[in-house]
Amino acid sequence: MKKVVGITFEAMNTTINVRVISSSEWVEKLRKFLNLLPSWFVEVEAVLSRFDPQSELTRINTGVDGTYQVSNILAEVVCLALNAAKVTNGIFDPTILRELEKAGYDHTFQKVMGRTETGLPLCIIENVQKATCGRSVQSNMGYKKIDIDRHTGSLVKLNGTGLDLGGIAKGWAVDQIFDQLRGLSEQTEICVNAGGDLRLVNPSGGKPWSIEVENPLKKGGNLLLLRLNSGAVATSNVLKRRWKYGGQWQHHLIDPRTGSPSQSTTVAATVVAGTTVEAEVWAKTLCILGMEKGLALLRRQANLAAMVLSYEGELIINEKMRGVIDARISTPAFSIRF
Questions:
Q1: What pLDDT, on a 0 to 100 scale, did the predictor assign at position 115?
Q2: pTM value?
Q3: Judging by DSSP bridges, how do beta strands 314-317 and 335-337 pair with one another?
Q4: Assuming Cys at both sites, which of 21, 105, 122, 161 could form a disulfide with 100, CB separation 3.0 to 4.6 Å?
């Protein structure tokens, strides 16, 4: 007989929800593990949070240029972030901290929300008019000013570089929890969800998990429904975290080629991948690069399923994503291109 065990709590400025379905013999062990998660997240944030003045990351960011000995957690996440920067040609760049601060994202989003107004900002129209997703300019390659030795925990930073790991930390945490749960019981059905970035598995191959992809252009609406037996899903959009600063609308997806919030034609992107880190990285990359350029770069990653939505309501879905969309739902009121 199978039982459902779960936990929901707040961490990393979002809601963490973990649900497992397992045979009775594993329930107690799984429950004990889940009960440890809130305190584990406290430890992780003490390392990775850029908003905690006492965190290990803040110590690096506010310190002088040079070499630092860092914890295993920080070394691992920085390695993942730098590898993601290389794979995306520098579009995903963990060294855009100073640019985020210049845009007004210098405190937790709860504090920054005081600068946010209700309703969709005018930048929806402005961004379509000013879109520059076809530019030939290159990333500033800021990530090359950081070097990390994963084995020794030695981190070198140059030129006053600041690290922001918010674009990858949630995904890393989800993957860590997922791997631990799989280690406890390979036959357990698992879904680890951190604010919509999630990883899951149904080892029996029975009824798949159902994932709704929200429509950022219509409050309370969904774009599509996905059906997955395994994998990770992440969605990124430029409307969820936005605020007004210096008289202009800003958002958290910095284009490293300009040092400013992205002005591509993409309002949202959803990626299905093998790990949450990979899905999270590519969802952000697609938003920054724009629909055509982003999907062109994504084609080099044959294992990724993706869809991107424009401000004007055009939805582009790659062939891999078509395989996980629930075909029973009606076509949404958007222009869909495959």
A1: 53
A2: 0.89
A3: parallel
A4: 105
